[in-house]
Amino acid sequence: MARKSKVKVEPAPAPANPTPDTPPPEVIVVRSRRVACDGVGGALGHPRVWLEMGEANFVECSYCDRRFVLEAGQEGLESELLAPGVYEGSHGH
């Protein structure tokens, strides 16, 4: 019988940052540090997620990569009555 040699094939390492300078697909300016995203909704959307900016002035959705940027001049404390974290703008954001 012939011997079968075992060759160990190792996968190539993944790049550290595959898209370092790729801009987000969409930037949405908001007035609240707390926003909701559903990827435009409908059949092309994703489950609704609530995103918090924290101390940053932007947050990105992990589903659709949309970037929500806090409007200039809105860096102060928020009021839940004025900005309850609901969708803003014409397309529900």
How would you describe the overall organization of this protein?
The chain is mainly β and 93 residues long. It has a domain at 27-70: q5lls5 like domains (HSP40/DNAj peptide-binding domain). The protein contains no helices and 5 strands. The protein has strands at 27-30, 34-37, 49-52, 58-60, 67-70. A 3-stranded mixed beta sheet has the order 1-5-4, with no helix packed on it. Strands 2-3 form a two-stranded antiparallel ribbon. The protein is elongated.
What is the fold's blueprint, element by element?
Elements: E1 27-30, E2 34-37, E3 49-52, E4 58-60, E5 67-70
Parallel strand pairs: 1-5
Antiparallel strand pairs: 2-3, 4-5
Short description:
With 93 residues, the chain is mainly beta. The protein has no helices and 5 strands.
List the main descriptive attributes of the protein structure presented here.
93 residues, mainly beta, HSP40/DNAj peptide-binding domain, three-stranded mixed beta sheet, two-stranded antiparallel sheet, 5 strands, 0% helix
Categorize the overall geometry: elongated
CATH domain class name of the domain at 27-70: Mainly Beta
Please identify, by name, the CATH architecture of the domain at 27-70. Sandwich
End-to-end gap: 69 Å
